[in-house]
Design a protein that fits this description.
The chain is α+β, with helices and mostly antiparallel strands and about 425 residues long. The chain folds into two domains: about 300 residues, Alpha-Beta Complex (DNA primase, PRIM domain), CATH 3.90.920; about 100 residues, no CATH class. The chain is built from 16 helices and 13 strands. It is globular, with a radius of gyration of 21 Å.
């Protein structure tokens, strides 16, 4: 079965996944035939072009995180396996894929069990490198108000959200501050679920299994890739359920292999579930478009929306020690711009590793593994407050002398620094027994 034939079988379900979206992002080498720059092969067009990119061109397609006119915000818990320089093994052959999925399966089951016990609706979409657990969060509901109540917006993020550009479909209406606060709140819930899972599997490495962490901050790990929650919400999208997955072609140039495909594993409305628990069957479908199309017939493609159970979820988080850490972080007064970095350079308690980053921040201050170590050393050894560690990262990012190759308006410097410092501070406190979850 060709990619176009596969998409013709599932296009109705794919359209259901895009309900409430105003654009589709399509990525891949197929754009070369249209004269696109090989360095940036991503097209962003109105959602009515979805069929052109899928049934017509056989491309992989992505959903925007924030829906049309900020009416809803998508929550995508993102599980990934990371193998440092060997990630190609995820796409080499079906048996290799099967091996790695057996490593990840207990993590998937743990998180699914957590959601089902609380009646939290979700769609579980398996990808060749992990899974996405999705649900929509409409604005204007009581659950939305609870989510907005735990969000926090930095001034540079507010400016980015309020900026509009009629020539940029992603920024045509900007992002409402209510949606932005919900986006921030969802990021904190993702961190909460990640820490719960890390705690549950804390002995994984000792048993010879891959450790669990946040982002690819350990060389070989199963991680919660929470990077979707960092940066301006209008910059964030996620590969759609039923999409082809062409990383074997686009990144690893394995053109002798067929494209892989994302496969829905479960749909839960808070009461009843439709699921495929057999991971061998999931992997078979990833490698066979015909089987994937037949399997897709069990699911509508509609991403369920949060209901009243979301309010209980937020309140559970509010009762946690992690919420207290987040509250202290958000409430700590910032150091003036440039002062934090100068203080750090004069602090004799800072380790040699962290000091190296102080004087050589690009690219180390953008790399998860190095950021995690930097935050850990300043927090645990030098006894800095987490917000002030974030101010050091902010001071790096706002200084153009370091030669950053990043748009710090679309990915605001203060928000980026706060997000990653908050995340890695919580991990450091957990690792040292100062945070129980």
């Amino acid at each position: 079965m060709t990619p176009q034939e596969y998409y013709s079988k599932v296009i109705g379900k794919l359209k259901n996944s895009f309900r409430g979206c105003h654009y589709v992002a399509a990525a891949g080498r197929e754009l070369l035939a249209d004269g696109w720059d090989p360095s940036f092969l991503v097209a962003v067009e109105p959602v009515d072009q979805l069929e052109k990119f899928t049934v017509g061109k056989g491309m992989q397609v992505h959903l925007p995180i924030v829906g049309e006119r900020s009416r809803s915000v998508l929550m995508p818990l993102d599980f990934e396996i990371f193998l440092l320089g060997e990630n190609h093994k995820l796409y080499t052959d079906k048996e290799s894929q099967r091996y790695w999925f057996k490593q990840m399966a207990p993590v998937f089951r743990f998180v699914e069990d957590y959601f089902r016990k609380r009646g939290l609706p979700y769609l579980l979409d398996y990808t060749p490198s992990g899974a996405h657990l999705l649900w929509q969060n409409p604005l204007g509901t009581r659950a939305a108000a609870e989510l907005e109540g735990i969000g926090f917006l930095e001034q540079d993020l507010i400016r980015a959200c309020l900026y509009t550009d009629m020539n940029d479909i992603k920024r045509r209406w900007g992002i409402s501050l209510e949606a932005a606060r919900m986006f921030s709140g969802l990021g904190k819930l993702a961190e909460y679920v990640a820490l719960l899972t890390i705690s549950a599997f804390k002995d994984n490495e000792a048993k010879g299994a891959l450790p669990i962490t946040v982002s690819d901050s350990i060389d070989r790990c199963i991680n919660f890739d929470n990077s979707w929650a960092e940066g301006s919400p209008f910059m964030r999208s996620l590969r759609s359920p039923f999409s082809l997955h062409k990383k074997n072609h686009d990144k690893y140039h394995m053109f002798h292999l067929p494209p892989l495909v994302d496969v829905v594993g479960a749909w839960f409305d808070g009461n009843t579930v439709v699921e495929e628990p057999d991971m061998d069957r999931i992997v078979d479908c990833m490698w066979d478009l015909g089987k994937a199309a037949a399997h897709a017939g069990r699911f509508s493609g509609i991403i369920p929306a949060a209901d009243g159970s979301m309010m209980d979820f937020v309140r559970e988080y509010r009762r946690s020690a992690l919420f207290e850490v987040h509250q202290e972080f958000d409430g700590t007064e910032e150091l003036p711009r440039h002062e934090a970095l100068e203080r750090a350079k004069r602090d004799g308690r800072i380790t040699g590793f962290a000091r190296h980053i102080l004087f050589n921040p690009n690219p180390m201050a953008l790399q998860p593994k190095n950021m995690m170590g930097f935050v850990y050393d300043l927090l645990i050894y030098a006894e800095w407050k987490p917000k002030h560690i974030a101010n050091v990262l902010r001071d790096f990012y706002i200084d153009p002398r370091y030669g950053w190759n990043m748009d710090f308006f679309k990915y605001p410097a203060e928000e980026k620094a706060n997000f990653w410092t908050r995340t890695f501070s919580s991990l450091a406190l957990w690792k040292t027994g100062k945070l129980s979850i």
